[in-house]
Amino acid sequence: MNKEFRLFLLENADRGGRPADSELFLRRAASLYGISEPALQAARICKSQAGKPYFDNLDIYFSVSHTDGLWACLMGPVNCGLDIQVIKPCNYLKIAGRFFSAAENAYVRSQGLEGFFALWTRREAAGKYSGRGFFADLPELVQDGCPAAAVCLPGGKELAFIDLDLSAGQQKVSGTVCLPAANRRDWHEAYFFI
Length: 194
Fold this sequence. Notes:
alpha+beta, 4 helices, 30% helix
């Protein structure tokens, strides 16, 4: 089995599609990751008490995100988080004012819409990593006026953030991978289309 992280992408995925479609995509990604068909057929997709999905009886971790027809799945040997977002107009100053710290708000005011999405995807990816969602207790996501490359969670666990640019044509897509800092070396910028 694979010992590094892989990012699987599916373009033109209909977010409004049947829930079975996401499971089908996830199982296809796991197959490409190296999980045997018999093991995949026997595995169920379950959810933790906090709502984080996982495969029972498989020693892999994953995080799924989708935005405007793009479906993505990060798969790896240890816990991970992923968020992708199409960068499109929104009331980002108001949203940042409600959910972000003073330093994060200052960053958004100076960097605009793209700065907002850089922090939003970090927060979402960390929330998916922890299984506690967007409102998980996170440290400051801006350090020295820039988005943090790593943060230390309460309890001492250090997380690394990796920025993704999945833009294609006119559509700008921002994303963030979140994984344990100790496993940062296991990330290689390679995307696999399914």
